[in-house]
Amino acid sequence: MVYLILGNKGSGKTKKLIDRVNDAVEKSSGNVVCIEKERLLTYDINYRARLVETDQYGVSGYEAFYGFLCGIIAGDHDITDILVDATLKIGGRDYAALAEFLKKVARLSTDSEQDITFTVSADESELPAEIFEYCKKI
Predict the structure, then answer these.
(1) Which of 15, 17, 6, 42 is nearest to 132 (CA)?
(2) Contact yes or no for 109/116 (Cβ under 8 A)
(3) Which residues of the chain have a pLDDT value below 70?
(4) Cα–Cα dist 116/47, whole Å
(5) H helix or E strand, kind and range, residue 20
């Protein structure tokens, strides 16, 4: 399932994501991956979660981001949860492209049986309604 943590800058999205990462680590029987644009969460998340920084790999745009997610999933079949901070900073502010990206990620999540959570710095009203057909807001 794909989950979205929505809200404008300063609304506490990253704090919610950190709590979800740490909860997932405690409950997971597999591996938990946290993806961020630049290394900021090192001291906030449990050391057992794998922290991956997209800037280190030159990931920019939704096509590259989707390929990056596929590579992470293909490389470790024991991943139960993937949590992503700063989605719009990684992929861009094109909401139509975001909707298409999330639709593909929803299929990927179902096929790989992994929960994937994204923080999105936008109000629900700003996003295309179709996103909520395959993503759940938390």
Answers:
(1) 6
(2) yes
(3) none
(4) 19
(5) helix 13-27
Query: DSSP 3-state assignment of 27?
Result: helix
What pLDDT is recorded for position 41?
82
Burial tier of 105 (Cβ tally within 10 Å: 0-12, 13-18, 19+): buried
Q: What secondary structure does DSSP assign to 90-130, as a single string?
A: HH-S-HHHHHHHHHHHHHHHHHHT-EEEEEESS-GGGS-TT
As given in the structure block, the two tokens for residue 135 are 């993503």
Cβ atoms of 27 and 80 closer than 8 Å: no
Residue the block writes with tokens 């001291």:
43
Total-model pTM: 0.93
